[in-house]
Amino acid sequence: xxxxxxxxxxxxxxxxxxxxxxxxxxxxxxxxxxxxxxxxxxxxxxxxxxxxxxxxxxxxxxxxxxxxxxxxxxxxxxxxxxxxxxxxxxxxxxxxxxxxxxxxxxxxxxxxxxxxxxxxxxxxxxxxxxxxxxxxxxxxxxxxxxxxxxxxxxxxxxxxxxxxxxxxxxxxxxxxxxxxxxxxxxxxxxxxxxxxxxxxxxxxxxx
Length: 207
Ligand SMILES: [Zn+2]
Fold this sequence. Notes:
Elements (H helix, E strand, L loop, with lengths): L6 E6 L5 H14 L4 E6 L9 E3 L5 E3 L1 E3 L5 H12 L5 E4 L7 H14 L2 E7 L9 H9 L2 E4 L12 E4 L21 E4 L1 H16 L4
Parallel strand pairs: 1-7, 1-8, 2-5, 2-6, 6-7
Antiparallel strand pairs: 3-4, 9-10
Helix pairs in contact: 2-3, 3-4
The site of zinc ion has 7 residues, from α5.
């Protein structure tokens, strides 16, 4: 196999149009008659349909990736069914992949010359790397940041989790998926200032 593929990681904060970019890429592939596969980790158990959907209204069918899915085996099955190697894989929410699954993807790239484009978040609501993102930073061929801007004008870095009052949540499980209303992307400075403001407000009534 002479074809040389790449493992890509395109990361950004929430609301940085990662999914819209994935879907636009899928659309372009279709226009040019290129074959591709869309995949997404299965996290939100309320999700019934296997689709990747963007806020701008477009969607595409996808294959679910479960915690124990072997992506190397899955790729081989897909190639068998298709009768040949499928050159492009588009993966949404790649932060939720396990490190092992990212390694499996890298083997698909190296053994079959596929191009695998992973879109995902860099860090969780406490500013720490997700497992899938960490492994992608470690071994991806090409890493691109999809930038977006905080209300103050700086680049967004943090995906802050917010409660019903709009306050930033500091504790909790790493994965707690709801609607878009539960998270807001902010810059590091605003994230810090807001938390200081919250803690002062909580202390003041007792002084
Ligand atoms: Zn800011």
